[in-house]
Structures are given as structure tokens and as C-alpha cells.
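pls ignore typos typing on phone
copper (II) ion + seq
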Amino acid sequence: MFRNRNDLVLVGGVIAVAIVLGFAWFTSEAATAVLATGQTAAPPRPSSPADYTAPPLSGTTATPAPKAGTAVDIVRDPTDLPAPIGTRGPRRITVDLVTEEVTGTLANGTTFPYWTFNGKVPGPFIRVRVGDLVTVKLKNDVASMMMHNVDLHAVMGPGGGAQATQAGPGETKTFTFKATTPGLYVYHCATMPHAEHIANGMYGMILVEPDGGLSKVDREYYVMQGEIYTDEPFGTQGPVGDSYAKIVAETPDYFVFNGAVGALSEQKPLKSKVSETVRIFFGDAGPNKDSAFHAIGQIFDKVYPLADLSDAPMHGVQTILVPPGGAAVVEMKTLVPGRFTLVDHAIARVEKGLAGTLIVSGPKNEEIFKAADTAAMPAMEH
Ligand SMILES: [Cu+2]
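k done
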């Protein structure tokens, strides 16, 4: 049956591996079944979590439908995020999300039917710490046309909470989860078709701080990249609709930071002063494209790749690759004044709307950067 002893050994090895894999499968299935029937002890609760009322999430709620021909500003200010948690212990937290469908400004003269969390893109920045018990209340605005829900990547549970929060117009759904693992996580609507709900603006991030919090920095910013697929070419004036065909073909017309063209350049640029440290919580909502996130004229002094906050950061990084549904935390010391452009270094996307600006003010620092003709480089005003 076997040509030689080596064949025999090989076949024996394959059988042994199959037995081990089979046992692992059986035990995992058995464990799942036990969990499903509730026969195990309840998961341990954090030691005496106190009730705690988190600051209300920013953003609008129940935005009135805009009048015909008008549009609302859906841009999330990149400074709109809660203060660091610091050293407090685990608590009970309630998060109120409201899904709202609004006509928003996509670019100068162009409006788009956004679907949002709390009226802005991205949705509110949720900030908790490891060990917190978080109750998510999702209300679908009564004026909505669609079902919506929320899947938070920080959740260990079915659908990340999507099934538990599937809500029709006017409905409110709730679930509670324990924040088990530090990290910066994307959340998004996961109502079918997922990609359309995400592309139309239904995403945000939740930060789960490690015990003791993150290191202190001078400024923190909240930035998310997204793609918008329209039924008219880039730059078309007036109201445009979404294009499901382009979403499926993965051919976006627009790439945007914080929801709209110019959101973080003309409208709400990031700011810093010479010698400060800036942290950016960066997420890629996709739904389809990676981001090669890069700040032109800066070096990321620290990067937490894939937003892993349990391990030491990397240092001296030029560009960080962030997948759709993923995030990164980057920090930079702004040593020199000037205007620095935030991009996806798949750089043609600048032509489709993707650029942000970091304005660094303060005295020149010619030890670090000195142009040949310094007269052409006036000091920035505060
Ligand atoms: Cu949705």
C-alpha cells in the first residue's frame, strides 16, 4: 500500500493532525452549544461598577428634515471628542445613538442624501475604558425611510450588537456589553446592504482606553476616511443620489475626511503649535478601500498600528496602512510652523476630495527646517 516508510510516516502524520483538528472542532462546537443554551455561569461582572452618566454625545438629535432645496452641514468637527478618561475605575455607561437621514452638503454646490448617526459624519466619538459596562441605546428617527442598527467592533457578541439594535423608523433598541479589550474601534450600521449604509455615512469610532488611560498629549483629533458613490460624476452641482451599482463595483466618485469635500481643509482644519504633540484617532470606514494615511511634511513619532492599544507603539512611521473597518492611532510632534496636508497616499484620491490640513503656528525652528530663502517663509501667526 505504501511505497516506502516515508509515505507511511506522512499518512500517519496527516491522520494525527486530522484527529487533533476534529477534537478542537468538537470542543469548540460543544462550548458554543453550552453557551447558547445558557448552561454556563454568567460572565463575571466588573467589581461593583458604579452608575455613571457619561457626558451627552455631541451631534444633533432628531434633526428636522431640511426644507426643499436646503442642506445641513454633516461635517463632524475633528475636535469634537470627549476628554481623556484618566484613572477612573470601570463604570456603567449609557450611549445614545440616533440614526438620522438628512440631506447634507457633500461639496460646494453639491448635496447628498446622507444616513448618519446623530446627524454628523462620522457619528459621535464614544470614549470608554476597559471594564466599563456600556449600554447602547439606538433610536431610529421617526422620519427615517430605512431600518438601521449599529455594529460596534469593540463588542464581543452577535453582530457586534447589530441584531439587538435593528430598528425601524421610530423604534428604540438597546443592548449592554462589557468593554473587554483596549483599542480604537470602528462602528457602523450593518443593515443590509451593509456597504450602502456605510458609504452613505453610517460610521463612527469607539475608543476603549487601557487601564490608566493613554499618554498625555497636547491635542487630540477625530478623523475618519470614507467613500461616497454618487449617481452623477464627481463635481456635479445640485442634488445627487447614491449609486448602489458603483458601491458594488467599488468605484467611488468621492473620497472624504469627516464626511464632505473640504471638511478638514477649508472648513475645520486641525491646529497645533510648535513643539506640541498631536494625536489623531484615525479610522477608515471604507466601505471598500484601504487608506495609506500620511501627513505631508510630518513623521509619525508614534503609531499604534491597527489601533492595538495593548502593545507598545511603533516609532518613526511615514505612512500607516489602515484597512476598511480598521483604525490607527498616530502621534506627531509638530516642530515646525506651516500648513501640512493630511492625505491618503493613494494620492490620486486628492482629486476626488480627500485632503485635510494641519496648521502649525509658532516661531520658526531653523534647526529642524531652513529654506534657502527664509524671507519667503514668514512666521505663522497664532
Ligand atoms: Cu443604516
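Residues 115, 146, 148, 189, 191, 197, 202 surround copper (II) ion (CB under 6 Å). Residues 5-36 form the longest helix (32 residues). more later
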